Amino acid sequence: MKRIAVLTSGGDAPGMNAAVRAVVRKAIYEGMEVFGINYGYAGMVAGDIFPLTGRDVGDKISRGGTFLYSARFPEFAEVEGQLAGIEQLKKHGIEGVVVVGGDGSYHGAMRLTEHGFPAVGVPGTIDNDIVGTDYTIGFDTAVTTALDAIDKIRDTSSSHKRTFIVEVMGRSAGDIALWAGIGAGADEILIPEHDFDVNELVASIKHGYKNGKNHNIIVLAEGVMSGSELAKKVKAAGDDSDLRVSTLGHIQRGGTPTARDRVLASWMGARAVELLKAGRGGLAVGIHNEKLVESPILGSAEEGALFSLDNGKIIVNNPHKANLDLFKL
Ligand code: ADP
Fold first, then answer.
1. What are 109-112's contacts with CB under 8 Å, separation 24+?
2. Tens digit of each residue's pLDDT (9 = 90 or more) over 175-216
3. Pocket of ligand 1 contains residue 162 by CB under 6 Å
4. What is the role of this chain (predicted)?
5. Which of 39, 44, 70, 76 to mutate to test the pocket of ligand 1 (most atoms within 8 A of CB)?
6. CB of 171 closer than 6 A to ligand 1?
7. pTM, two decimal places
């Protein structure tokens, strides 16, 4: 392959810029031409496609967000949108595309694969909810940000003998809550992958104060319910502590990427280019047991593919499980 493109799509994540930088620099090093696509699939369909040089990605590795912008573009779930996107790519002489994004963006890459257009997925999302990789780009930074915020909440919580529900992001995955909660020494961690009993939670809060604790930190993954909803349930179940809710929100999506996210992004971006250079599309790059791996995007579960199709409907072959094994849950 001689000419490829790169886009970022879905929720932005710290480290996406580092991934794009790696794609651009590696492609140029390999003697390929590389184009950028603004605003994800929306820009692909609109033809917002332009050549990128090595200089264009200077000073980008340390920046959060994505300089290629991101967008939600539901029209790409329709076959007309997908074919219009491929037409634009072909018009620019582009032979393969690197998609940096989350779960929804991977569905788009799967459709490109289905239509025979070579796409390589690079997992960029803070949620760590992508199949085919142990860690996604942006997760480490989001956990570090959440951890820092929880440490600060703990200071004020102890000073006032308060109970705090800290709601963290993660969509339907509990990874951010698990890592930030364990790292911050939270008293309770509630994740969607694991049931909880509100009466047991209230008993544990009471037990904590009775045993001389001067605060209670409950880390709640947004996929379970909202912080205010949980607060109502906890109060209804008899909690009599001074209870506050803190929703960390979008601060978890921004900021300078950690070393881990920058290195992961650089490895994965470079690998995506190597695959396309060898004419290998329809793959998603991941990291498994600290080794770079790639999985077919579309195929059977036995082949290790991420998705299969059942009468046009997308089936996720091995749904993500929030590193539950690691924590022996
Ligand atoms: P993320 O990639 O972070 O999970 P989204 O779920 O918003 O974010 O998906 C990003 C974009 O991927 C969507 O706006 C849409 O353009 C595309 N996309 C999502 N789902 C599909 C699908 N089922 N088929 C094709 N494209 C999709």
1. 109/284, 109/297, 110/297, 110/298, 110/306, 110/307, 110/314, 111/76, 111/77, 111/79, 111/82, 112/82, 112/85, 112/86
2. 999 999 999 999 999 999 999 999 999 999 999 999 999 889
3. no
4. Catalyzes the phosphorylation of D-fructose 6-phosphate to fructose 1,6-bisphosphate by ATP, the first committing step of glycolysis.
5. 76
6. no
7. 0.96
